[in-house]
Every structure is written in structure tokens, then in C-alpha cells.
Amino acid sequence: MTLAITIGIMVAGGVYLMLQRGMVRIVLGLVLLGHSVNLLIMSAGGVFRRDLPLLQFGTALTAGDPLPQAFVLTAIVIAFSIAIYMLTLAASGSDDDTEDAS
Amino acid sequence: MNTSLLPLFVAVPLVSAGLLIVLGGPLWLRRTLLLAPSSAALLASTGLIWLTRDGAVFAHNVGLWQDGIAIPFVADVLSALMLWTTSLLALVCSAFAIATGDDRRPFFATLVLVLTAGVSGALLTGDIFNMFVFIEVMLLPSYGLLAMLGALGRLRAGRIYVTVNLLTSTIFLAGVALVYASAGTVHLGELAGAAKEDPAVAVGAGVVILALSIKAAVVPVHGWLARTYPAASPAVTALFSGLHTKVAIYAIYRLYAMIFDGDAKFLWIGVVAFTLTMVIGVLGAVGENTTRSILVFHMISQIGYILLGVALFTELGLMAGIFYLIHHMIVKASLFLSTGAIEHTYGTGALDRLGGIAQREPLLALVFMGAALSLAGLPPFSGFVAKLTLVTAAVDDAQWTAVAVMIAVSLITLMSMLKIWGGVFWGREPKPHELPEPAVVGADGSVATRTTVPVKIRPALIAPGLVLTATTLCIGLGAQVLLDLSAQAAAGLMDTSGYVEAVLGR
Fold it and tell me: Has keyword Membrane (chain A) (predicted)?
């Protein structure tokens, strides 16, 4: 439940930031969205079994699911690199905010 | 066949890209390393088509993990056909980039190689999370290519492109999480038919397909394509048009056939969305006045045609869709390359600043006209066969609205092609004083002017488009070969048991 509420709040914040006009805010919004999806993946594996996923340290019944953790690790790296690239794009070139023109 | 060779489609370009960074090296070495992997992939995929032509499916567990745990690489005739076409396009577009000098930019060759590695991986993988990773591998170099080469405003286009694609990838990932939560696996073989049995899986897989539709630029989520592609350099636009959206289309075909098992109750959504895509794409082109922005809107319209095949989900419909996909990739790249040759030489693609090219460049005019007629669907080119098969399939399925729209949109497509023909190829070249006020002013106040010295378009710029137009003519004349292969691929999508058996080993 806590996880579901956290994901919901983070998605709401991410969507709000993405609808702003500044590029940096959009990037922050995407980072928030990315993290909420990471939490969604974690919750997809079930959060109640938390033992080590190694058979000599417990049974398969109580071991945590390692696959979602691997997914999240991959997804974090990809989202992080793209976020940094977007920040570079935000800083380079002219500002294309159209507030004055409209 | 030794199935452990399949990962080489990904490994060879990746290793070449790494070598390029380490070695640096003179230009000829960079060019060799750029062209060799695509040529090798073209040959290898020709062999793969030959081996899979009777419906055989080859699967390899990467890392030799056991069935069901490993990430499988799977090749059937559909992926083999796609691999063949993407390698051909990568090769031809690289040759064009060499002719325009784009490849002299640092890391151009490296980025293109990583891009092709991602495309091959996404076409071969049998695991949806892995598909996400390979789509990212394909997109990351494209961000670089778009921001590095291109017209004024490429940074703005780059911002839109990266934002849309990162958002789409996040949605894709959320879909994968929902599928994993409801089905407990992301392995395509184990997911076979899961969404038909369990509505929860259908929701998750639906989110994945929504994300793929954004990447394929289906109406109403097509806006990003028309704003970003015209800002890249001509070679890069041709490369993107052939690879990016088409990988998403391939994934929609594959996932709908595997996970949904062709579930008939969702097909109407596809028919509505894809029919709208055809109409809105082609109407968007009417208001455009540069060659490339017209062609980009046509791409959206054609994506509707291709995906209509999967929305019919009959054996004939799928066959027509796959044939259309292969035909479209080749023809569209040919059009982008022949107009790109003009744009590169004359420095503009605006219809009112060009004219009389047909007189000066008869060969290029022929190349463009062939591809344009093929796009509109006139015999003897492959477009005629593709459209005829698709219309027949839609008539069989009694989708009368879609049939009417397809025929009407063909006519508008032809008119649009004639607009480019009339603006660029016919007439006479405008005199300097007749030119409209220059629309493009640089950031430093410099004005983009067109050269008035008579220039010839170099043969090296015409040849890539010529190769592709010749290919569409050959496919049109000997259509039966590709039709048979497409029918085999469609049969593999209708009955996925062969795929599942190869992947799971049972």
C-alpha cells in the first residue's frame, strides 16, 4: 500500500513537472517518472519475500525475487545516462522557450 | 545451423564500434569498419532467409543457460527478412553518408554501428525486457547523430526527440513491470497466449504496445516524428526512417501475435487507429513545402497501411502487412536519399527554391520517379503488389471503410508526389531575383543562400538511391519470392507453436 501511494505521488509529480516549459524541469520530471517506474518493477516482484536469493542462505519460498532487481539496475543506468544527455541539450544551443513569441 | 552464431549479428557491429574508438585510425580504415559489418550482416541474413524459408525457427540461449531462464535469440523468417532489409539500408545509407562527408565527423561510424547492433538485437531477442534494452541501445546513438548532424534547429528537434523517446521508454518499462507482475515472466515463449487468457496480462501488454505505437508514430501520437526527422541530415533521416519506426512495427507484429495470440476482441482499436493514421498522415503532407517534411508525413500515412495488416490478423492480412513493411522500408529510404542528394548539393529542399532538376539530372529524376510511383502503388513496382494484397485482405475481412480510405489515400499520395515532382524536377530553375525572401537566418545573422553556379550532383550521391529503386523494381517484377516468404512469416505469426517449441525446447 505504501509503495502504491509512493508510486502514485511520484507519477503525479513527474507528470506535473513534464508539463512545465523549462527543459530542466522536464528532465527532473522524467527522472521522477523513471524512479516511480523502478518502484513499480520492484513491487512487481513482490516485496514480502526478502531473504537472499541464494539457496544456501534460505529456501526458495522466502528468497526475494532477483529478476526485478536486475531489471531496475539496468533501467537506472539507461535513464541516468539519458537524463545527463538531456541536461547537456538543455544547456547547449539557444533557449527555445516560446513564451515571448506567442 | 549452428545457432550460437545468432548473437554475432549484435556482437560484430558492437566489437567494430569498440575497435573504431580504440584504433581511431585513418579515414579508409574507419570507412571499412563502417561498411564491413553491414555487408557481412547482409550476406548472413540472406543465408538465414534461405534456412528459415520453410518455417524453421532457430533459437539460441545466450550464455548457454537452460531453456526458460536464458535470454533467447530467435530467428524465424520474419526476423530474417527484417534483418536483411535493415542491413541493406544500413549499408546503403552509410555509403550515402560517405558520399556527403557526414562520416568525417568524429564518432559517426561508431554511432551508426552501435545503432545497427541495437536494431539487430531488438529483431532477434525473444524477451520483452531485453527488447527494451536493445531499443535503448538503438536510440542512444540516434540522439548523438541527430544533435551532431543536421540543419538549423537540430538541437530543438533533439530535445523533442529525446524527451519523447525517454517518456516512451518509461511507459514501455511500466508495461514490462505490469506483465511481470501478472504473468511472472517476460519471456516471449512462456507468454504465448497469456493475454488472451488473463485480462491482467492484457493490460500490461497493452501498455507495452501503446509505447511501441508512440515509437512507430501512430496517430494520435505521431506529432514528434514530423517535427524531428526533417531537422537531421539527409543520410541520418533515411537511416532513421528505415530502422527506428520499423523496429517498433516489427515488435507490434511479434508481440500481438505472441502475447495476445491474435485476440480478435481488440482488433477494432487497431483498425480505427491505423485508418486514421493513413488519412491524417497524408493530409498533413498537403501543407508542407519542403521535400523532406512532405516525405516524413507520408511515412506516417504509410505506417497506417503497414499496421493495418496486424489489425486484420488474417493470414492474408499479415502476409500483406509484412510484404508492405519490407517494400516501404526500401522505397522510403530511396526517396529520402534521392531528395537528400538534391538537398546536399543545392543546399535546400524547399519546393519554391528548386526547379528543373529533371533536365539537369535525368538519372536522379528517374530514381525519384520510380520510388515515388512505387510509394503511390503503381505497377510494375513493389508498391502495387503490396497495396493490392492489402486491399484484397481488407476486402476478405469486410473492412469496407478501410478499403475506401486506402484507395483514396493512394490518390492523395500520388498527388503529393507530383507536387514534389512539379516543384523540384519540372519547370525551370528559379532565377535569383525570383527567389522568395530567405526564410532561414542563422543565429549570427548569416543568411543561408543558394549557390547560383551550375553544379552537378555527383554520381556517388545518386547511386545509393538508385540501388534501392532497382530493388523495389526487382521486388515488384519478381513479387512471388517475397510473397512466399511473407506468407511463411504470416503463418509463423498465426500459429506460434513452432516459435514456442524452438525457444522452450518442448
Answer: yes
